[in-house]
Amino acid sequence: MRKWLNGIRASRDTIRNAISRxxxxxxxxxxxxxxxxxxxxxxxxxxxxxxSVVFSFVPKAFKAIDSSISIEVITTPEMAPLFRDVFKVDxxxxxRRKPSKEKMRQLAxxxxxxxxxxxxxxxxxxxxxxxxxxxxxxxIASLDDSVGLVxxxxxxTTHGQxxxxxxxxLLQRCGASRIDTRYIVPRDDESEARVAQLISARERPxxxxxxxxxxxxxxxxxxxxxxxxxxxLVMLPAHDICVLSAPGKQEEVExxxxxxxxxxxxxxxxxxxxxxxxxxxxxxDALVSGITATVHMADGLxxxxxxxxPYDPADRDDWHSRHPLSVNWLAEPSDPLDVNQMxxxxxxAALEAFCQAVDANxxxxxxxxx
Length: 370
Known about the structure:
Elements: H1 2-24, E1 39-43, H2 49-55, H3 58-65, E2 70-75, H4 80-86, E3 91-94, H5 101-111, E4 113-119, H6 126-134, E5 136-142, E6 152-153, H7 163-173, H8 189-200, E7 206-210, H9 222-235, E8 240-243, H10 250-258, E9 265-266, H11 274-283, E10 287-289, H12 292-300, E11 305-309, H13 313-319, E12 327-330, H14 344-369
Parallel strand pairs: 1-2, 1-4, 2-3, 4-5, 5-6, 7-8, 7-10, 8-9, 10-11, 11-12
Keywords: Transferase
GO biological process, one term: lipopolysaccharide core region biosynthetic process
Protein name: Lipopolysaccharide heptosyltransferase family protein
């Protein structure tokens, strides 16, 4: 049933996109590098925590080109504080995730004239097309080279690169030379204090495991989660395992922890916010996760990850962990995509090699702190 419904939705979206292109697209001559850029607007109304962290270095990098450049973002009210207060963009234009055409017209009027609009998606959909056609932009950059309105086409030239490298390519076209692509990870004092209190009562180092995603394709089943935990306990005998929680999952997490015979599997009681998980990852020696949001945060915190991807090589290219010790593992092909479809002997061999590297790295760090 789910496969059938997904097919119906895909057909509907294809028709909508085709109609939108015919109505609102128009051809512009391709551009190699925009000149005299003073105002840049990023369309991030679909932004989530993980991809926003990957974006986090971009505002500072643009300011390094010219401190007078205004870096602005179109995003939802929920994500606005992250861009405004943490990533320090100059302006945030708030809108709902899927605004009406009238709301998009009003948004375009509020934004006004812009030198460069950036919409970094592989596919410009019908609603995106409408907004891009109404924004008063001298230039538009995107990864969807098929759109005529897009004159700064970066899809083919950045194919196979990580999203951070795609942003770096955009920055280079705009005049950047040395680009620091390290991420900015939001931290919260209350969460840091709660986690510090939890960890102070424990004597052993630990690794985190994150099983929960909003989408089914990336979520680890309880069976997969418990299997990975048992392997980690054996492969890292000097470490404990911290199970990260998510909304509506605290009871399941605590049940998983309760199965530990020697108290080596634990969690933060009453996990409230994503900042709680960030504080835990920051104190961990490694992360095992099927969810790239926490992986990007781990990268920003210099924590290596064993990343479990559903069988989607292009997605892995876009969003893999960039830490030098990380392993980015693809599950077996399946329809629909499912991260739990593992060739376990091969996956466990890769996990063991990762654990050996993590243990060696932890020992080296311990020697440096003595």
